[in-house]
Amino acid sequence: MTRPDLSDAEAVARYRAELRVVGRNQRLAGFALVILGAIAVWGAGYAGAAGPAVQWAGYAALAVGWALMLAAIFLRTRYHRRRMQEMQS
User: Fold this and answer.
1) Among 15, 29, 50, 58, which is most exposed with the fewest C-beta within 10 angstroms?
2) Residue of 63, 76, 56 lying closest to 33 (CA atoms)
3) Does 45 fall in a domain?
4) Total domains present in the chain
5) Tens digit of pLDDT for each residue in 41-77?
6) CA 16, CA 10: separation in Å to the nearest integer?
7) Is the four-CA dihedral 62, 65, 67, 70 of positive or negative sign?
8) What is the residue range of 53's domain?
9) CA triplet 14, 15, 20: central angle to 5 degrees?
10) Closest Cα to residue 76, out of 26, 34, 12?
């Protein structure tokens, strides 16, 4: 991998667009799980007898969603660090 050319504003915009793609699926899935988990935890009081199960499922969705979002941040940071290093060949 080569270091990105950040000499002008257009090159910086292209590199930022490239970085946005890294980990996008994990980030979007994590965000969706966090939203669904929050809705499930909030709605557990209205679920009647299934309330505790819905609440635990909501907590599980929140945990997995945040883990996916953190994984996406890790992937993006690792990609950026690799791109910023000069190749020694």
Assistant:
1) 50
2) 63
3) yes
4) 1
5) 999 989 899 999 999 999 999 999 999 999 999 999 9
6) 10
7) negative
8) 9-84
9) 100
10) 26
**Per-residue pLDDT tens digits for 11-41:** 889 999 999 999 999 999 999 999 999 999 9
Place of tokens 């809705």: 39
User: Residue 18 half-sphere exposure, CB side, CA atoms within 13 Å?
Assistant: 14
Residue 89 lies in a domain: no
Question: Residue 17 to residues 34, 53, 85: CA-CA distances in angstroms?
Answer: 25, 41, 19
Residue 29 lies in a domain: yes
Sign of the alpha-carbon torsion through 18, 19, 21, 23:
positive
Residue found by looking up tokens 């609440």 in the block: 55
Under 8 Å between Cβ of 46 and 88: no
Ramachandran bin of 4, using left for φ above 0, alpha for ψ from -120 to 50, beta for the remaining angles: beta
Stated as kind and residue range, the H or E segment containing 25 is: helix 24-43
